[in-house]
Give the backbone structure.
Amino acid sequence: MASPPPAPAMSFSDFPEDIQLNILSFLSPTEISAFACTSRRFAALCGGAAHESPLWLFMCERRWGFSTRLLSWSSSAAAGHRSPFARLYKALDRWEDLIGFWRRIGAGDPHLVFFEWGPSYIVGSRVAPSTEAARDGYGILKVPFLWLGLSSHGEPVSFLHPGCRLDSVADLLGAVSDSSISSSGFSYPDLVPVTVSFTGCNHFVLEENRGHDANARAESSNWVQKEVLRIEGTSPPDRLMSEIYQHFANRTSPLDGKATRKQRKKEKERFERRRRWHAEHFVKICNCYPTPERPLQGLWKGISEDRVLEFYLVAYDDIGGITCWRVGEAGGQFPGYSPVFWTSNTAFLESPFPREEEDLYGSREHIRSVASDWRSIKSEVVLRILRINSSHDLVIPSLSDSSSDPRNVDGRIWEYDDGTFGFGFLRNDYIIDLKHVTLNGSLLDTVELPSVQTLATNKSQSCESVDF
């Protein structure tokens, strides 16, 4: 008996349009443009270069739908305008690299900045260990100061307020007309319009947006035009250009020179008064989170031997070693970083452990905050032990004040069953337990500043700056 003829194969055009758009959303804009050139039907499906094409929404949903509320980004920007999803895609494609931890470099304190998704914006916050952490827990001070979003015209805008928060960021973005708006155009006069300029993916510069000085430049330009017209009206054509050059280069007239110099001085002073933010450089802290292959990797927090909360960065190098740095310290040989230990040994000692190792762990004190639940220490289960066979004392001898006793540089890392770990050296009788800084992209144990006023509830008062 003959088998039935096979069903005709489905082509891409046979799928429903929403399925086609979903498939195309996996492509890049360049690939979509190439696909649109294959036929008129596909050109219509992709919308060509039209910004109102629904494909932009599918592409945005594919990449950022689980991170933020895309419709909230576009709700105010779409009023009376074309769909902003093309601009939104381009803005988020550029800003996506901001998400995560960054460290300020250059003069001043090397504070950390953490970028995260908001419902209709991206917010950058300064983060620092709480000064009360040793008493109250592992609290992290989080102070939002930078916001990036879309204006009412769908243009990308960014602004900051040093040390302050905004509760109605979406409303503020909806009131902004374009990316070159002046600070006086904001509902909150303390906000500073800024630009975020990337140098590669791991370095950006935060600068004040001086686009709002266009009015001042226009006034200066009008004054120059008036001077040229005045000279032109009193000079014959053959001497016009020479007198213009002489007038603006020398200006030695007792009447004109004094007034001009005075006006220039006033313009310079006004420009400096308007400058409320000097450029700052930030570099990204890569590999901030542990992975199954690298369980110790990432940014951690722990109470040090000085009984203060510190940030620790643990990284795996290219030759298989593990390095631990204390983050956030200014000055010294390593501005922003202070070495803690380095080890080339990454082979863990599995349970059951020798009696000697059990005694090493059991005889040491866990440095914890006063408010810590001491019962949780007893319940911690050590899964594995890693021997630290060297520290910064061996790698950087000038930092060492210890003797040649190997116990001064040997230590242990104890990995616990909850994914955290502690470390200590044989020369000491304590263990520094490290905890997660973030979970699923959100900061843990954040604390608020009581001195920081909320702009949305008190527009008449300016926020106090926070000194990190």
About this structure: The chain has a mean pLDDT of 74. DSSP finds 14 helices and 21 strands in the chain.
